[in-house]
Write the structure tokens for this entry.
Amino acid sequence: MASPYVRIFDTSLRDGEQAPGASMTSAEKLEVARALARLGVDVIEAGFPAASPDDLAAVQAISAEIGQAAIEGRPQSEPPIICGLARCTRNDIQAAWEGVKGARRPRIHTFLATSDIHLQHKLRMSRTEVVARATEMVAFARSLCPDVEFSPEDAGRSDPLFLYEVLAAVIQAGATTLNIPDTVGYTLPDEYGALIAGILAHTPGAGDVIISTHCHDDLGLAVANTVAGLRAGARQAEVTINGIGERAGNASLEEVVMALRTRGEKLGLQTGLDARQLCRVSKLVSRSTSYPVPPNKAIVGANAFAHESGIHQDGMIKNATTYEIMRPEDVGATQTTLVLGKHSGRNAFSKRLAELGYPLEGDALAKAFAEFKKLADRKKSVHDADLVALSSDERAPAPELWHLEALQVTCGTTGLPTATVRLRGPDGQTHVHAAVGTGPVDASYKAIGAVVQLPVTLLEFGISAVTEGIDALAEASVRVRHEGERSSHGHGADSDIVVAAAKAYIASLNHVLARSSHAPARHPQATGD
């Protein structure tokens, strides 16, 4: 009986990097490789060493560091296999060996097309020549490295009988893993599953090697095909983080892994990955390749655990399993998000208000909910500061106990960001203070805080353009909490975003002071600091 363990072969650094515009530097590749090792992938395809000197250097660096010892936090006790890709030529295979030989567990991965389309129009080789070339080059690779993977390119459109012949020959020549690529994303899940099953049934020696999947997403079926191949007996899945890769990309690592985990009882398969790191690694690869993750991307997208529909939100409040088949913390996401918008219902609206410290019931809730629906029709998303403003006791503006009379900031790439504020206090006196911060807004807030002397925790800060154009009016929203009390919000608008942010912060402090039982602190008049 075949083992239920599925090797995860990550090719983000090779096939993933071939996506247009996704190239990474050697330093970026090394950083991603470290993250993949900590994630627990079994094989890292570090690159195509013959492609360029930089690619060779990157593979060598990864082999020397990642391939030598298990990185702290890695689920497995031994380092991942480090793999280099090579065409079926001596020069490519030699370059691949030079790239991976520094690893404790090196692998050479070589490939040659087997479909009649590729033989006729690309290789211009006969079937007999393909068998001879594949056999010779696999044997050469095996003379250098004990672990050799062979891929019959475009296997999904190859004649199965010829495929069995090629694969049997390369097994005899020393191949230890047979990768079966659906190179152009053409097959359907039942076809790909049958292809894997046929190889296992009709290829001499197939039961003694690892069969691998490698599926592209041209028809959006890469993950489905991968799962079908694994169910048919494959025990290695070639995947990429975020599904990046040539054209429409590859099978997504995070989707395959979580499909096997979430449907474990049905599939009976498992991996050695620490799935709690998936979101973090996804963000790293997105940043390194400059490929954004779509919000609706499964598992790691911003909306993967977000709910706006009122029916869905009501179900989630009652029991999360009504609309979530996995927990966000299982993949490293922070939490489930109930996004309040025009589709949201009264239950989610009431629950969020209560969480913010503004529980409403009866007529007050009905009135606030009606106002919320009007606001939601005008905005795509309604933020916490908007909700607080809708609550009955926050609708009227707070008394202007503190007023911003002037603000001066200096910032840039040299020097320390500094802000000087001049505030008029509740005693009618003018107070001036200067402070240094990590940026102009931070410096402004520190200067204001030094004058007002009201300790608060900043819970939410947002800024947006109210109008269009470079001279747009900016609106800032701030939410703060003072010593365990319910949160208070403030809004501010100005053509200068730093001034808008300062106005919003002062407004939030005024809200706190307006309902606080203690009087504002008295300050000596200041002229500077």
